[in-house]
Amino acid sequence: VLAPGSTIGILGGGQLARMLALAAAPLGMKVHVFAPEEDSVAFDVSSARTVADYDDEAGLAAFAGTIDVATYEFENVPADTAAFLAERVPLRPGARALAVTQDRLVEKSFVRDLGVATAPFMGVDDVASLEAALGRLGRPAVLKTRRLGYDGKGQAVIRDGDGAAAAFASIGRAPAILEGFVAFEREVSVVAARGPDGGFRAFDVCENEHRGGILATTTLPARIAPETEAEAVSLARRIAEGLDYVGVLAVEMFVVREGGRETLRVNEIAPRVHNSGHWSIEGAETSQFEQHIRAVCGWPLGPATLRGPVTMHNLIGDDVTAWPDLAAEPGAHLHLYGKREARPGRKMGHVTRLAPSRRD
Ligand code: AMP
């Protein structure tokens, strides 16, 4: 258990690290952010910073000397970086969580081996294996790079008439996975925490809407049956236990209607706090960020109880120009990430409202 006054090291300096640092402060914890970019937005709210590349061993060793635990805000922390830090300080979540979630083929195989349903999938290494996989899985199908994809990048939907060679070229001919297309009714996620003692606490299931491969809105409660909600949480728990996980994780799932019943297919595991959990800052008794800090410090997990219906809208690219209206709107909780330039597709902030605002 880390005492107040301890220092949490965070790899990555984006908005997730920034909101983790903001949640660490009320618990009396300090944060040291390690990131390669000089203008990392987490630096604005951290007590210490290191600007260095993830393979800079001198920089990592100095960083490790100042922190009591290391964590991260993104799953693409290089394996060597994780191993280097783990020799010096507790790394939470551990290297296994990174190894499994960095590679979509390893991740889907891990989930399937737990007996949890996913989209049908096959590994693809070249055009010939892609053609074979298309023969087995049919069309439409979704081709994704095994590594380094996010927000719909490194992905291609292959429909009738689309050529395998062109699709493989469009993802850079990288090692890939082909998934059968899931005709889902909705997308949900479970954001949950597991402590070093194995204690587990899940937030209520989040209903997510993506636009152009990027999360647009999260709404709670999710429009799913209570049995589906219980099943979703139980799948997330099996995944967390299978990874011997410490910290907050998110499991994204598709809800599929089969013979009148809702069933779940796991799509992706994020070994970190997640955009679909941002609503919890105002909408839950404990935010996902505080929960992650509690978990990696070995503190008791806080109650994850939902305070009431809540919606979170991402402010992507130019959406952020609406900030004066949002700032003037009573009940709109505005979060801006401090990024200087609003490029298209870039997450600039989010706004959370604690009242139902469904359009249906
Ligand atoms: P991912 O990068 O795997 O999270 O995928 C981004 C988004 O693409 C998902 O949130 C879905 O909306 C969609 N998608 C991904 N995989 C599939 C699939 N196998 N079938 C249908 N839609 C998918």
Care to describe what's here?
With 360 residues, the protein is of the alpha+beta class. It is 27% helix and 29% strand. It is built from eleven helices and 17 strands. The chain has helices at residues 15-24, 57-64, 79-86, 95-101, 104-113, 127-137, 164-170, 226-242, 280-283, 288-296, 323-328; strands at residues 7-11, 30-35, 48-51, 69-72, 121-124, 141-145, 155-158, 176-180, 186-194, 200-202, 206-211, 214-220, 247-258, 261-270, 310-316, 332-336, 347-353. Strands 9, 10, 11, 12, 13, 14, 15, 16 and 17 form a nine-stranded antiparallel sheet that branches. Strands 3-2-1-4 form a four-stranded parallel sheet, with helices on both faces. It has a four-stranded antiparallel sheet with strand order 5-8-6-7, with helices on both faces. Strand 1 (7-11), helix 1 and strand 2 form a beta-alpha-beta unit. Helix 1 (15-24) crosses helix 10. It is globular, with a radius of gyration of 20 Å. The model has no long low-confidence stretch (mean pLDDT 96). Bound molecules: adenosine monophosphate. Adenosine monophosphate binds at residues 119, 142, 149, 152, 179, 181-182, 187, 210, 213, 252, 267-268.
Largest sheet: 9 strands, antiparallel
Distance between the termini: 46 Å
**Computed structural class:** alpha+beta
Overall outline: globular
Count of strand segments: 17
Q: Tell me which oligomeric state these chains represent.
A: single chain
Could you tell me which ligands this complex binds, including any ions or cofactors? adenosine monophosphate
Estimate the strand proportion. Answer: 25-35%
SSE pattern: EHEEHEHHHEHEEHEEEEEHEEHHEHEE
Radius of gyration: 20 Å
Mean pLDDT over the residues: 96
Q: Low-confidence spans: pLDDT under 50, at least 5 residues?
A: none
